[in-house]
Known about the structure:
By secondary structure, this protein is of the alpha/beta class. The protein folds into 2 domains: 4-118 and 229-263, 3-Layer(aba) Sandwich (Rossmann fold), CATH 3.40.50.720; 120-226, 2-Layer Sandwich (Dihydrodipicolinate Reductase, domain 2). It contains 9 helices and 11 strands. The protein has helices at residues 13-24, 53-56, 71-84, 97-106, 120-136, 158-170, 175-178, 230-243, 254-263, and strands spanning 4-8, 28-33, 48-50, 64-67, 88-90, 112-114, 141-148, 179-180, 195-201, 207-215, 218-226. The strands form 2 sheets. Strands 3-2-1-4-5-6 form a 6-stranded parallel β-sheet, with helices on both faces. A 5-stranded mixed β-sheet has the order 8-9-7-10-11. Strand 10 and strand 11 (218-226) form a beta hairpin.
Amino acid sequence: MALSLVVMGASGRMGTTIANLALEQGLKLAAVMERPEKVDALAHWGCLAGSDVNAILPQVPGAVIIDFTAPEATMVTARAAVRHGNPMVIGTTGFSAEQKAELEQLALSGKLFWSPNMSVGINVLLEILPRLVRMLGPDYDLEMVELHHNRKKDSPSGTALRLAECLADARDWDLKDVACYHREGIIGERPKKEIGIQAVRGGDVVGVHTVYFMGAGERIEVTHQAHSRENFAQGALRAARWIGGCTPGKLYSMSDILLSEVKS
């Protein structure tokens, strides 16, 4: 039996990519959803469509929700997903600390998966970069630049923040104490205990993240480039296939999938 999906924001760029790819892979679109003023644009999908998640989910029991929308909308959907027993894959970024904490609490009762970047490559970097930090030692300055399209609403990107968190953790730092998002004017020498995170916006750049390790006489650059949104959609569908076999109790992430596959 084909996996059934509910795609949130199905008329948007990511939602459309996910829905098209799901159909290409023989998966079932159980429902597509949008804001009330955009529901009429969903008729071409040929499945259940609507804007009220609490009205839709009882009609599609067990269908996996995929959501790449906006933090407030995603939180409404996550609460409904747990209430109705639907697994949910979240690719939304820009959550507040309080929203992240609520997702973790909701995951104790429902099957929730969240990754700010669904790319396999980025998630492998999250496993590798801390080792590089530790091996290079404290004399190397850590900096990051991220590039995205001109319609991206949050800054820095969720991926940049997650990468920076893993760098800070490797040095036993708290990112909120060491992150530097802006430099201007006579600011003095760069503190050793700092991670610079700079955002560039323009054109239709899907996503580029470069981490710099800068020491005396040398520089190491680690860059990940996403060439299309299909990369993220593929990861989301992979997560959708995987989350159904999990049990509630934690907020799962792409690293859980990768580690489970390594162990097997």
